[in-house]
Design a protein that fits this description.
3 helices; 78 residues; mainly alpha; flat; 86% helix
Length: 78
Amino acid sequence: MAILDLLLLSILVLCALAAVRTRDLLGAVIIYAAYSLLMAIIWLQLGAPDVAITEAALGAGVTTILMIATISKTGRYE
């Protein structure tokens, strides 16, 4: 179990760094969605399924859709 936790943590840190370092807005939003899904998995591993469902629905779902809609309305610039 500790190996899975370390793997999830390392992927989570890589997603956070990639979201900050990328220059493409749409790419950053997609990486953020992956980050939110990983956080939902981590919450589930920690024994908080209600928080995991909320994170998956709001963090990865609604927020990502709103950000993509905003990018499509304003333009996709670096």
